[in-house]
Amino acid sequence: MERVTIFGRLSCGFCARAIRLCEMKGFDFKFVDMMEENITKADIAQKIGEPVHTVPQIFVGEAHVGGYTEFASYVASQAEESLS
Asked: Residue 77 to residues 13, 71, 73, 80, 82: CA-CA distances in angstroms?
């Protein structure tokens, strides 16, 4: 899998879950603390071309996957494909 980039906040439970999932799966990932980096949801929205209301916002390579729920589904579908 390409590098996973998680844009979020340290205080966010779903961000922590995304980080744990990456660690458990051994993915190459980077967590970007939006508060520390002075990145807003509007900045992310501009990058993906649609409004952003929640964090985390997760990318695999350059492709926007979505939030934690979408990312967990994406990871599960990748695992299923590798078994086929």
From this structure: 23, 10, 6, 5, 9
Amino acid identity of residue 75, one-letter, is V
Exposure class string for 47-58: b at 16+ Cβ within 10 A, else e: eeeeebeebbbb
pLDDT digits (tens, 9 = 90+) for 25-47: 999 999 999 999 999 999 999 99
Question: Would you list the domain boundaries of the chain?
Answer: 4-83
Which tokens is 25 given?
């799966």
- CATH 3.40.30.10 is the classification of domain 4-83: yes
Half-sphere exposure of 34 (CA within 13 A, CB side): 19
Model-level pTM?
0.94
